[in-house]
Amino acid sequence: MNTTDIEGMSVAEPMQVMEAIWASLLKSDSEMESPDWHQDELVTPFGLMETLQ
Fold first, then answer.
1. Residues with Cβ < 8 Å from 36, sequence gap 6 or more?
2. What is the spatial distance between Cα 18 and Cα 6, in angstroms, rounded to a whole number?
3. Using 50, 70 and 90 to split pLDDT, how confident is the model at 8?
4. Which of 9, 23, 27, 34 could lock onto 38 through a cystine, CB 3.0 to 4.6 A?
5. Positive or negative CA dihedral for 19, 24, 29, 30?
6. DSSP E strands: which ranges in 1-52?
7. What is the rounded distance in angstroms from the CA atom of residue 6 to the CA atom of residue 27?
8. Which has the higher per-residue pLDDT, 29 or 7?
9. How far is it, in rounded angstroms, from Cα 43 to Cα 52?
10. Looking at residue 53, what DSSP letter applies?
11. 30 — alpha (psi -120 to 50), left (phi > 0) or beta?
12. Spatial separation of the C-alpha atoms in residues 53 and 43, rounded to whole Å
């Protein structure tokens, strides 16, 4: 599948493909380790919220 295939799909079809990809990743036995910057991105919005309160 390539971008040309995706561009020819209805709006619902790429969403169904993404759902299938996520479902297959969740069933995968292998663990993917998140990069360190993911944690930074998760913490930053919460830190900003605390400073604004």
1. none
2. 11
3. very high
4. 34
5. negative
6. none
7. 24
8. 7
9. 14
10. -
11. beta
12. 16
Q: What is the pTM of this model?
A: 0.51
Write out the E strands in 1-53: none
Residue type, 52: L
Q: Name 26's Cβ contacts closer than 8 Å, sequence gap at least 6.
A: none
Here the tokens at position 35 are 């990069």
Average pLDDT value for residue range 12-22: 94
Q: Which two tokens stand for residue 9?
A: 């799909």
Cα–Cα distances in angstroms (integers) from residue 17 to residues 9, 14, 22, 23, in the given order: 10, 5, 9, 10
